[in-house]
TrEMBL record:
The keyword ATP-binding applies. Belongs to the cation transport ATPase (P-type) (TC 3.A.3) family. Type IB subfamily. It comes from Chryseobacterium manosquense. This is P-type Zn(2+) transporter. Residues 33-55 are annotated as: Disordered.
């Protein structure tokens, strides 16, 4: 039987290394740089027909082997040139030796140059390196020709390793869907391909195994690790009848799940598709650099030709070899790989860091927008509150037996399907079926009435109390929450308050937004007193209740009229007009609704509002790193280009300006993978 991965309670894989992971075939496109097929910029990393930084099929030693061979031959050649002169090491023998040192590192690059030209991208960095190093051989600067190509090749390997590292957490995400599952057929376990499982089949899941498809839990209760979906490793206990999702790890007992969704339609499949497509949505900075590189590279080639040829007409002691050398140095320096690799890698790192924390960006362009957000406009229910009504306060008058009253209220409310009834049932517990209800009726807009033990029980709002002339000595308008009034035997017995409880990290969310100089505004269709109370509790700047969807749109338009960027946080379905109007639409609870994944630009998978400032922080850090790399590359290259044209910089400075700056930029770009947000 095919090997299945095993995981511990924290979601850590126990059995295979990253290099051994099988990446699902329809996810492979994520592991390739998409620059080649876009056709609007310079190629550094191509897809199948070009250069590829995906190194999962090679060990580090295999990647470095050509460079090691070249380095050993180069050192030996330099030693025989300068320190241990050999009589035989001259003329064609010396040339052959350096060609042997050149070939291991040059062949892949020259092949890339040929492929690029064949695909219509003439002025690629590979062509620049080819011209510069072959030119060095032409003017008999053999060691420098080898050295330039060697350092470039070493830089390429480090870039490959950096890209692989940056992608590792997304690669692990892509392995969350098991290829095979165990189903019960005539009560006998049978291992089948996950893609062949039908809706209605029963999956048997052992401890440590991952669920392959979405379904309904048939076992009474089970604990799951949901890290693959939410970024949270804390166990989540599900009860019979609740929905469980592909990617969840069963932690304790053998569990049975009834499949409710096709393999390709599972929540995890949608998330994987979203992450795959994210890298195709390019940020403006990234698109600009690509377009810039496409124009910049041919200009540099023609400038190099000018540096070599034009001095002939203006310099009295013109020496072709000297000016060709300057032109070759200029070409090496001009290679734009530091920009073309490090900038997409920076954005890729940002998307990866976000997905590791349970935040899904639909494109690197939204990382840029999140970095500029000045206003976060949020819905109340389900965003800053749990979206589940709970009993907040029970106030029963002393002359009544509190437990008996609550049992009777629970029995009466069991006749209703209203969310309030559910809240009371959850608070009181199981219904006491020994309580006899007689002449039960629902009074529309008021509440419920029944006869218990010969006495009338009234449960509803204060209009119900007024209707039956029940006297009470309090002002209902002073109570913030929804109030359930109770009367028994013609007397007011007390009341319950019911409310949607505030999420534990909601207050912290608003504080962090303020630290980022972001204003928080709450828009809700809920009762205005409730909205104002929640806003005051959380420290929200502005809050508006009793709003219709069109009112929310108008409020967002008012903010945008001030030329300020707006992120709207909601369920992504009911608030679709506001999401469309805002600069970034953020959906809370991507696991709860397929529609949220479809409509939002950013999906927060675990319902935690504290991920909103985290998403802004990730956007800011990504943009900061990208601009650091742009400034570093332009500054160093600009200085060395001028020095090279003036004959001051040698090939060695040129190598630093190209490979050195590229490596520094890449190391800077992968920093985001280690950051804590």
């Amino acid at each position: 039987m095919k090997h299945k991965h095993k995981y511990d309670a924290q979601g850590k894989q126990l059995c295979c290394t990253l290099q051994e992971l099988k990446i699902d075939k329809d996810s492979n496109k994520l592991l390739k740089e998409e620059q080649h097929h876009e056709g609007d910029g310079h190629n550094h990393s191509h897809s199948d027909d070009g250069h590829n930084h995906d190194s999962t099929d090679k060990t580090t030693i295999e990647l470095f082997l050509p460079s090691i061979i070249s380095f050993v031959l180069l050192l030996a050649g330099i030693a025989m040139d300068n320190f241990l002169p050999q009589s035989w090491f001259k003329d064609w023998v010396r040339l052959a030796w350096y060609i042997a040192a050149y070939i291991p590192v040059a062949v892949p690059v020259l092949k890339e140059a040929f492929e690029s030209i064949k695909n219509g991208d003439v002025f690629s960095e590979f062509l620049l390196m080819g011209i510069a190093t072959i030119g060095a051989f032409a003017i008999k600067e053999y060691p420098e020709g080898v050295a330039v190509m060697l350092f470039y090749a070493v830089g390429e390997v480090f870039q490959t390793l950096a890209v692989t590292r940056a992608k590792s957490n997304i690669k692990s995400l892509l392995d969350q869907r098991p290829d095979e599952v165990t189903i019960l057929e005539n009560n006998q376990p049978k291992t089948v391909k996950a893609g062949t499982v039908n809706i209605g089949d029963i999956i048997q899941l052992k401890p440590g195994e991952k669920l392959g498809l979405d379904g309904e839990l048939l076992t009474d209760a089970a604990s799951f690790n949901t890290a693959a979906l939410t970024g949270e490793s804390k166990p989540d206990t599900k009860n019979k009848g609740e929905t469980v999702l592909a990617g969840m790890i069963n932690l304790q007992t053998v569990t049975q799940v009834k499949v409710t969704t096709d393999y390709t339609d599972s929540k995890l499949s949608k998330i994987l598709e979203l992450v795959q497509n994210a890298t195709a949505q390019k940020a403006p900075t990234e698109l600009f650099i690509r377009k810039f590189a496409k124009i910049y590279t041919p200009i540099v080639v023609f400038l190099a030709i000018g540096i070599c040829v034009l001095p002939y007409f203006f310099v009295s002691d013109y020496v072709f070899r000297e000016w060709l050398y300057r032109a070759l140095v200029f070409l090496v320096i001009s290679c734009p790989c530091a920009l073309v690799i490090s900038i997409p890698l920076g954005y890729f790192g940002g998307i990866g860091a976000a997905s590791r924390n349970g935040i899904l960006f639909k494109g690197s362009n939204f990382l840029d927008v999140m970095a500029t957000i000045k206003n976060v406009v949020m819905d109340k229910t389900g965003t800053m509150t749990e979206g589940v009504f709970k009993v907040q306060k029970v106030n029963i008058l002393p002359e009544f037996n509190k437990d008996e009253i609550l049992k009777m209220v629970n029995a009466l409310e069991s006749q209703s399907t209203h969310p309030v009834a559910t809240a009371i049932h959850n608070y009181v517990g199981e219904v006491d079926h020994s309580i006899q209800l007689k002449n039960t009726e629902e009074i529309a807009g008021h509440g419920l009435k029944s006869n218990i033990n010969g006495q009338d029980l009234l449960v509803g709002n204060f209009k119900l109390m007024d209707k039956f002339n029940i006297k009470y000595d309090l002002d209902p308008s002073t109570i913030v929450y929804t109030v359930i009034a109770i009367a028994y035997g013609g007397k007011f017995a007390g009341y319950l308050t019911i409310a949607d409880s505030i999420k534990t990290d909601a207050k912290e969310t608003v504080e962090k937004l303020h630290q980022l100089n972001v204003k928080a505004t709450m828009l809700s269709g809920d009762k205005n007193t409730v909205v104002q109370f929640v806003a005051k509790e959380l420290g929200i700047d502005n809050a508006f209740g009793d709003l219709l969807p069109e009112d929310k749109v108008n409020k967002v338009k008012e903010i945008k009229a001030k030329n300020e960027t707006v992120a709207f946080v909601g369920d992504g379905v009911n608030d679709a007009p506001v999401v469309a109007l805002s600069d970034v639409g953020i959906a809370m609870g991507g696991l709860g609704s397929d529609a949220t994944i479809e409509t939002a630009d950013v999906v927060i998978q675990d319902d935690k509002p504290s991920k909103i400032p985290m998403a802004i922080n990730i956007g800011k850090k990504t943009k900061q790193i990208v601009w650091q790399n742009i400034i570093l590359a332009f500054a160093v290259k600009g200085i060395v280009l001028i020095l090279g044209a003036g004959g001051v910089a040698t090939m060695w400075e040129a190598v630093f300006a190209d490979v050195g700056v590229a490596l520094l930029a890449i190391l800077n770009a992968v920093r985001i993978q280690r950051m804590k947000f």
